[in-house]
């Protein structure tokens, strides 16, 4: 996402009185993104990984901050983000990191050089470790930031364009009234703001972005020539390990062919290949541990079909990516891409640039 110049705020005169126009997008603040957000979902540092995954699924989120007693931990990335008493200002919690499904993937993947880990190891045992022990498995969990509620939408766009996917927003900060991204904060409560929140907000204000949203995706340089994917013959454990090594939240699944000799245990160049689904961290979040353990050696397509047949997956609002591909073409307008993503409960894949359901 790239910050773009917006129209200046204007006024009009009617009957000699100056009437303010509706607030322009460039004048909006981060607080406008979180006004209807629910209380922050978090987990204690002693929670097991299984409990953490249950929290992710129950609250339909893909990341949660980890809270610990103050004064005992060094925050991720050197951060010092505290929850404090509203009356006295005394610290009650210290957020020590952000655990995402990528961290869970890294933990499940284990060390594939270890003979005991070839088939994925004892998954039930892995899921009983404390969540604090997996912070830092992936770089994203070391990115714990806050955004002041008075930060402008344009500055928020700039921050998220640098690879930060989410940030905590203090509801009533005890720090000086700063504007921007910070590693140090103290507040009585927080909300979470994500890239998806920003996308939905921009989509709701598309009338102010006509000049941008009416342009083709290709023209904006948003089509990548390199697309990493897996084949429909890739095993679940191999797909998890591939995603872990490449720090990918999701990969397209492409149709295998006898005309190409390829290693189904590795990422492949999926450009110009027929897409038959996506495999994502979101899929794993909605999977009961016993089922995941039994499916690690199955191919990704069989796993997705089996997963979509259980009641928990349907109740959680997750979709079957083999039947509901979110796609757009290089000539598609940015408005179409933004609308599709903003109507999706979870962003699993930035976008699939396709031609007749082939990556192009």
TrEMBL record:
Keyword Repeat: yes
Keyword Repeat in annotation: yes
Superkingdom assignment: Eukaryota
GO cellular component: cytoplasm; nucleus
InterPro entries, A to Z: AMPK_gamma/SDS23_families, CBS_dom_sf
Start-end of Basic and acidic residues biased regions: 1-12
Region feature (Disordered): 1-29
SUPFAM superfamilies, alphabetized: CBS-domain pair
Record keywords: CBS domain, Repeat
Protein name, UniProt field: SNF1-related protein kinase regulatory subunit gamma-like PV42a
Organism in which the protein naturally occurs: Sesamum calycinum
UniProt lineage: Eukaryota, Viridiplantae, Streptophyta, Embryophyta, Tracheophyta
């Amino acid at each position: 996402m790239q910050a773009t110049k917006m129209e200046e705020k204007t006024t009009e005169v009617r009957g000699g009185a100056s009437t303010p126009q509706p607030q322009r997008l460039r004048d909006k603040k981060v607080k406008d993104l979180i006004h209807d957000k629910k209380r922050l979902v978090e987990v204690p540092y002693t929670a097991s990984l299984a409990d953490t995954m249950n929290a992710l699924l129950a609250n339909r989120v893909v990341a949660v901050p980890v809270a610990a007693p103050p004064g005992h931990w060094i925050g991720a990335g050197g951060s010092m983000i505290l929850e404090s008493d509203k009356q006295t200002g005394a610290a009650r919690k210290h957020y020590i990191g952000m655990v995402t499904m990528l961290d869970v993937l890294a933990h499940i993947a284990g060390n594939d050089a270890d003979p005991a880990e070839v088939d994925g190891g004892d998954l039930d045992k892995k899921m009983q470790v404390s969540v604090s022990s997996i912070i830092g498995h992936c770089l994203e969990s070391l990115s714990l930031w806050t955004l002041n509620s008075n930060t402008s939408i344009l500055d928020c766009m700039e921050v998220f364009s640098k690879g930060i996917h989410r940030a905590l927003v203090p509801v009533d900060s005890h720090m000086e009234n700063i504007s921007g991204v910070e590693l140090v904060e103290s507040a009585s409560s927080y909300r979470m703001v994500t890239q998806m929140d920003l996308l939905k907000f921009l989509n709701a204000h598309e009338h102010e972005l006509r000049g941008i949203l009416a342009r083709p995706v290709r023209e904006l340089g948003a089509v990548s020539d390199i697309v990493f994917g897996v084949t429909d013959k890739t095993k679940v454990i191999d797909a998890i390990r591939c995603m872990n090594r490449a720090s990918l939240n999701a990969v397209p699944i492409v149709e295998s062919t006898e005309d190409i000799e390829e290693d189904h245990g590795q990422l492949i160049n999926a450009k110009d290949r027929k897409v038959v689904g996506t495999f994502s961290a979101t899929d794993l979040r909605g999977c009961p541990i016993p089922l995941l353990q039994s499916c690690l050696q199955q191919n990704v397509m069989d796993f997705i079909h089996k997963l979509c047949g259980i009641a928990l997956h349907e109740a959680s609002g997750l979709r079957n990516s083999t039947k509901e591909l979110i796609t757009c073409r290089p000539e598609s307008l940015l408005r179409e891409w933004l609308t599709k993503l903003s109507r999706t409960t979870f962003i699993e894949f930035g976008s699939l640039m396709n031609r007749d359901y082939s990556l192009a």
